[in-house]
Amino acid sequence: MKISIVQQPPIYLDLERSMTRAVELVQESAAKGCGMVVFPETWLPGYPTFVWRLPPGAGMGKTDELFALSQANSVDLTRNGLRPLQEVASECAVVVVIGYQEIDGSVSGSTLFNSCAIIDADGRLVNNHRKLMPTNPERMVWGFGDGSGLNVVDTAVGRVGTLICWENYMPLARYALYAQNIDIYVAPTWDSGDTWLATMQHIAREGGCWVVGCATALEASDIPDSVPYRNELFPNKDEWINAGDAVVYKPFGGAIAGPMHQEKGLLIAEIDVSAARASRRKFDASGHYARPDVFSLTVNRKKQRPVQFEI
What we know:
Layout (H helix, E strand, L loop, with lengths): L1 E6 L7 H17 L2 E5 L21 H13 L10 H10 L2 E9 L8 E8 L5 E6 L22 E3 L2 E5 L8 H8 L5 E6 L4 H14 L2 E6 L2 E2 L10 H4 L6 E3 L1 E6 L5 E7 L3 E6 L4 H5 L32
Parallel strand pairs: 1-2, 2-3, 7-8, 8-9
Antiparallel strand pairs: 1-14, 3-4, 4-5, 6-7, 9-12, 10-11, 12-13
Helix pairs in contact: 1-3
């Protein structure tokens, strides 16, 4: 089975045009014989990197303006916001994993979440995971997720689970996925570089699973002139804002594709999904190597809602 990892930027903070590009990239990947297509963290409509570049307090008004633009270009599942991707997944018979910024129209209609959706090859949305803990200034943009999306799900290409960016440094979150017979572990991120790649390698060994890591390859020249404070945020026109470093590690470690560094395109890898379970003969973190008499983990999968309306 071939996996395609997208290392192309979206049209930054423009949901409609980015969605069109996403559909085209799925079609291109399917034409190359891929059964699965993976997009990075908040690819729709683009990672809010401005929170790392504007000083707290002094930049609050600018952050508010950029937040409003980001909010207006977020995906609302209550309005079938991922429908174009669900349709192209079904048309092309491919599994799509995509990081996106979600707005919950069923509750406040305002708070944003860093989410990752798994769309099966028949177009069904089979899992939606919201990042449990936004990192540092990300908390100025995103709310906290809950455990309802900590699922490994059956798809046309095998059992797939996701954790987002620095969630992958949370040992218990990783263990929750390992304990669900995972084949393909997808880690959409904004991180890159040697430390991140070492983490991906470690997870492949620890979890005995295929690991896909991917961040958005983005240059300052990719940011549209229409984005507020563009020149202040990205003064160096030649800057690589994110190098990408898309990579695929085989079960028990060893890169088979990538890292794809400071390059745009599709990273395509051919994998044998069954190799994941076979690799766990040597070390199975949640199986024969577990010690449930000594350690145990409880995961609360209840969807957390701030209000209940009774009739």
